[in-house]
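Continuing from yesterday's entry. The apo prediction looked reasonable, so today I'm repeating it with zinc ion included to see how the binding region is handled. Same sequence as before; SMILES copied from the compound registry.
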Amino acid sequence: MSYLVLARKSRPQTFDQVVGQRPVVQTLRNSILRDRVAHAILFSGVRGVGKTTLARIMAKAINCSAESENRPCDACPSCKEIRSGASLDLYEIDGASNRGIQEIRELKEKIRFLPTSSPYKVIIIDEVHMLTTEAFNALLKTLEEPPAHVYFMFATTEIHKIPITILSRCQQYELKRVETKELYAHFEKLAKGEGFNFEPAALSLIVRESGGSVRDGLSLLDQMFSFGDTTISVADVSEVLGLVDREVLTALTKGLLEGDKTAVFQAVHTVFNFGLDNKRFLEDLLAQFRNLLLCKIDGCSPLLDIPKDELIAFQEIASSYTSETIHLKLSLLMQLADVLKQSSQPRLALEIAFLKIIEATNVVPLSSLLGHLQEIMPGLPATSTMQAQAVPLQEAPPKKKTELPPVSTNNQRGSRDSSTPVAQRSPTKQPPPRQNTTSTGEAPPLPPEPEDLRPSPGPVKGHGTKDPKRDWAEFLEFIKADTVWMATNLERADSISHKVAGEILITFSDGLNCSLLQQKDNQQLLTKFACDFFKKPLKVKVIVPDIDNTLDESGVDSPQKKRQQLLNEQMVMIATEIFNGQVGAVRLTSDSRKR
Ligand SMILES: [Zn+2]
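Holo prediction written out below.
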């Protein structure tokens, strides 16, 4: 008994049977229907996507005696002849083994004669890119003026190796990798036809392994059919094909993200006990992380050509981590691929690298870190002499509303850009304030002061005119609702004065307490808050008296010295260590300065 491999047994004989490649099939069909078939057609694409299959179907269609809409019918004498390989008018040439000029000359000799039984002669040259330059040149002359009774069908996996002179004389069709869904349906049908029953995950694995190639998938199916049992599980597929079980991969992925050393080492043990190809194993692992990363990027999930249940599983894992974390670990894994190539002890190299990846702590976007800081800041004990001023990295934009001081004037307020991860210790320098410390920020152009014609409503809370001095606390609450840090900074002001109408002067004795407030953007924001709250045009000025602070009259330490002491405090050092950052600035409260 001879066993016909699936690839041959299931080879599509008509356009309807072709798996995938819908646009190409449609165009070819139309060309038959309208009798406008080009005399030279080139099919390109990776292996096993249907290039020679389509060439053969075209050969049949060209010579088919059925009505044009039914071609190829696969039933007429010509179709049958071609299918059985008995046609004298179809030449199939393997470009790899017939690549010289001599073979092309022989071919040209053959096509000089009219076809014997069919209307046309069809020449199929597979792997046409393998032809020598001379052979291409010899072919070129024929392609320039093809005899009316001859059609050429070329197939290639490497279209870039074909001379442009040849390309320009061919109608080109690029075949795509077949989509997972289509492969799955195709393989499922074939398996059923052969009397085999696959677990869905097992079939998914075969589809994944086939990498979009029908032929590769079919040969994997063949392997599984000869494995024995008619019911085929994931474990069977993994075993026969030498693949890492998806469960092991998932456990490893989670372990690496979670920092679970036990899980990671167990997975490595399984992998090595199995005797798997390291390179292959790492590729699978990288693919896992890539899938996770794509799950985190808005709108990218559809790019993942994986079965739905797998997609859901990936999305579930991805939801627990930031894209920065996944990105960081993926980059580290990429480096591992290089290390592994050169290592004489792959298992050890793998384990060490995995440890490194585990120890690369998960990344929290700076904006959310600062958000947390801001939440806990008001809860810090009042005795704390250090006001932990969260100095964001330059690029860290505020996450939403104005939770954070926009330290760079280039930052658009309210930018919803992704955040800069604090992946490693990096110098956190606060950009110098754009304005002089003594400056009073310019208020934006204000509308002309409206004449208040109403009778004064008096100090009714919540209505009517508010007074900057009287309702200052309420004003700070108003700011706090939108921009917490600004309210906190303003609470440190030494005095508020509203002597001149339309102007509020806020005095700070220590410039460091208001360096952010002095930035132009923030001044404008503060002015806007004031205008909104007091319901009249106001100018807000932040003032730092220009006094020499180096020696306090009371004889206590200079602020600089005090700051230095605070920097060296143990608590500060621990906090810096935990956040893996640097202290951007130390602010002294009036309380701490007296101590
Ligand atoms: Zn036919």
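Comparison notes:
- The chain has 24 helices and twelve strands.
- The CA atoms of residues 140 and 165 lie 7 Å apart.
Will overlay with the apo model tomorrow.
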